[in-house]
Fold:
Amino acid sequence: QVRLVESGGGLVQPGGSLRLSCAASRSIFSIYDMGWYRQAPGKQRDLVARITSSGRTNYADSVKGRFTISRDNAENTVYLQMNSLKPEDTAVYYCNTRGKLVSRQDFDSWGQGTQVTVSS
Structure:
């Protein structure tokens, strides 16, 4: 499987911004799509945003207009720019990547999660 290294979480005040990064660290032949999910305490893990290899994106309704997902195909890295953060955005954010290894084996990998806390 592919190891995903996440960074960028932390504590921010309401209305503030954070940028999450997720880098895939293994030889990859191709990536189908990359995405971010989040899980708040006592709740299920939900999609925040995904981006395909061609750049097509989709977002959860709750983050549209505030979050932007982007990717660097050359570095196998996906970013999530989060603006106008709200307390309800507080959660552990997980990166997910699906694709094909150099060996042509398919993979579907998750990062370890990074905590985002929005509080005054």
Notes: The radius of gyration is 14 Å. The longest strand covers residues 28-39. The mean pLDDT is 94.
